[in-house]
Amino acid sequence: MSNSALFYQAGVTLPLVSHGKGIYLWDTQGKRYIDACSGAITCSLGHQHPSVTAAMKAQLDKVAFSYRTQFESQVAVDLGDVMVALTEDRLQRVFLVGSGSEAVESAMKLARQYFYVRGETQRKHFVSLRPSYHGSTLGALGLTGYQPLEQPFEDLLIPSIKVPSPDFYRYTEVDISTHVTRLLQQTEAAMAAAPEGSIAAFVLEPVGGASTGARMLNREYLQGIRALCDRFGCLLIMDEVLSGIGRTGEWFAWQHWGICPDILALAKGMGAGYYPVAAIMAKADLVDTVQSAGGFMHGHTYAGNPLACATGLAVIQAMQDENILDNVREQGRYLRECLEQMKVRYPVIGDVRGIGFLQGVELVQPDAGKTPFPASFNAFSRITECAKKRGLLIYPRRCLNGMAGDHFLVTPPLITTRVELDEMMECLDQALKDFSQQL
Ligand code: PMP
């Protein structure tokens, strides 16, 4: 146990970080790690990206912080414009914040205030999926369907109506379409059971992250949810804190299906680990309704400061200059192929899912159908340790009773080359071998 005053994780001793470069990190003992999960699916451009650090240094030499109600900042204006262009003008308004949880809370409050100013004050309930992850603050955690995190705070949370997430691995119906139809019917019934006109928004991750191991929703399901939102007069909020900004091979995951939300939450990849910068984007008519009634009653001190915006702008610029989306599409396909091949070689891999550089691997007991490891086996932490010993960082999650087995994410920096992927896969192969030998 470390003697540090910091208390992030119980009972773990972590290496001290020394420095990072590209997709690699080093600890102070000189050990090198390949970052196969972009930290927390954040460091999309790897470490020490020259144009991002240069833009940040240049901004620091001008002004790091100015308050958004006292000064307009050109970098903030430019960031807003660039982001709207990335949505092909389908989401025309941007509100900057500092983290994913703040973005989700902001989306909830914008939805609520929108209905409030329209006189629909009873519209205050949210619907969300189980399992899901939307953040750690009380509102965002209220949406979250992830029991271990909810439990100690259950009676403090803003409760949401939880409906089951599609499960394209363990569904029991004859086919996926029947599975989706049943879930949509179940969801419709849950929404209809709420007092009439009381639902403000449906919140979902189009491609899940840690809670589901990169479970990707499909067109049929998303179309069904969009139709239910329209039927019940509520908004559709997509939480792309993790899947947004190029991670899946499109700027935003919703672009794979063309099903645009009313409000979009973004974070992680926006600042790419260089500075906290996050946002919500929303449709103009929605925001303008709120603005014309006095403005959004919400905000955080650090939101939209010049250093944050210079970082966000430089990240998007670098992604455009380096054709990062093409790399994610092409190398993402290769990454998927490699993981599928490992699934054949290692019976502990039950499922590989996701898209682009957002891939999830679910672990199961070998030759036992889709049976997860018992929770007490701590497969998620064992595989992480095996990977770390081989100098590889992956992003693990423990099993969720009856909903998902232990899994880990493989979410490399979006700059990762084919040669670097091969190196990553070699380490993962070794880690899976070591893990399998523990059984
Ligand atoms: N939503 C999703 C989908 C996330 O993956 C996360 C972070 N893992 C959050 C919200 C919360 O973001 P943050 O940790 O920056 O508050």
Automatic annotation (TrEMBL):
Keywords: Aminotransferase, Pyridoxal phosphate, Transferase. One of its GO terms (molecular function) is adenosylmethionine-8-amino-7-oxononanoate transaminase activity. It comes from the Bacteria. The keyword Transferase applies. Its EC number is 2.6.1.62. The keyword Transferase applies. Gene3D superfamilies: Aspartate Aminotransferase, domain 1 (3.90.1150.10), Type I PLP-dependent aspartate aminotransferase-like (Major domain) (3.40.640.10). InterPro entries: Aminotrans_3, Aminotrans_3_PPA_site, PyrdxlP-dep_Trfase, PyrdxlP-dep_Trfase_major, PyrdxlP-dep_Trfase_small. Its cofactor is pyridoxal 5'-phosphate. Belongs to the class-III pyridoxal-phosphate-dependent aminotransferase family. This is Adenosylmethionine-8-amino-7-oxononanoate aminotransferase. The lineage of its organism: Bacteria, Pseudomonadati, Pseudomonadota, Gammaproteobacteria, Oceanospirillales.
